[in-house]
Amino acid sequence: MIDAFENETFLKSLKKEMDACEMALEAVGLAMRRISEALPYYKWIGVYWLKGDTLRLGPYVGAKTEHTRIVVGEGVCGTAVKENANQIVGDVRQRENYLACSLDVRSEIVVLIRDDNGKILGQIDADGHDVEVFDERDETLLTEVAHLIAKTLPQVG
Predict the structure, then answer these.
(1) What is the pLDDT of residues 125-135, one digit of tens each?
(2) Whole-prediction pTM value?
(3) How far apart are CA 123 and CA 86, in angstroms?
(4) Number of C-beta neighbours around residue 117 at 10 A
(5) Nearest Cα to Cα of residue 141 among 46, 27, 10
């Protein structure tokens, strides 16, 4: 297992693997798998693409979800877009607008994917089964991965 926080090699290796992919969705799926492998407390991780006022599920790793489309403003994912800000939720049971994907989920983090002009393209969403499992280190890592994803989109696929 790679220590994705302490080892800068993780992001360099991920970038190299993503660059080798022929299609953007393949690269995004690869990124989700690598994070899931490196950080086993990520029990579900995936990407939602922003299309108008709806987030649409893209590549993910984890249990199947019924939340394939989320309206902006709805749940933690929709709130991130509406507020134009990443979200770290220590205990989803404390959020009134939480969209339950699984009874096991206790923590959630959402990091926005932006183009070079700051326009929101989508987001990385991750769930954990323990309270307070995500912190600023996760946000920093996912922000870097979001940047890689944004750079991959116009280049391939």
Answers:
(1) 999 999 999 99
(2) 0.91
(3) 9
(4) 5
(5) 10
